[in-house]
Amino acid sequence: MSVLTKDVWNVSEQDFPSTSPIETQLGFLLRYAILAPSAKNSQPWYFAVRQNRIHLLADMRRRQLVQDPGHRELYLSLGCALENLLVAAEHFGFRHGVSYFPEPEDQELVATVTFARDGIPSPARVGARLSAILQRHNDNSVFRPAAIPETVRTQLVACCTEPELRIHLTDDPHFRRWIDALTLEADRTEFADPAFRRELSYWIGQGVFGSSRLMAGLERMVVSHVDLGEPVARQDHDILESASLLGLICASGDGH
Question: Taking the model in full, what pTM does it have?
Answer without folding.
Answer: 0.86
